[in-house]
């Protein structure tokens, strides 16, 4: 359990893993950078944003996949950031089939 605490894993921290997927690698990279910037703007210095980086399975069904991992304890502004990202990427999914999963 001490290693989990040192590594900032549950039950000591909460985790959110975002997976961004699309057939166009450029769109995946742009969306990943955008999500990373939004998270950094809304989260405190106590939270950790890891990535963006290629997912463990970087390509499935001809779609490129990147991921971003967020480790946090208590983030008041996180809900606003998640709401914004959900609304924004819901519209992007309808327009361009750009997928954001968490």
From TrEMBL:
Keywords: ATP-binding, DNA-binding, Nucleotide-binding. The keyword 4Fe-4S does not apply. InterPro entries: PriA_C. GO terms for biological process: DNA recombination; DNA replication initiation; double-strand break repair. One of its GO terms (molecular function) is DNA binding. It holds the Pfam family PriA_C. Residues 11-93 form the Primosomal protein N C-terminal domain. This is Primosomal protein. It comes from Staphylococcus gallinarum. The lineage of its organism: Bacteria, Bacillati, Bacillota, Bacilli, Bacillales.
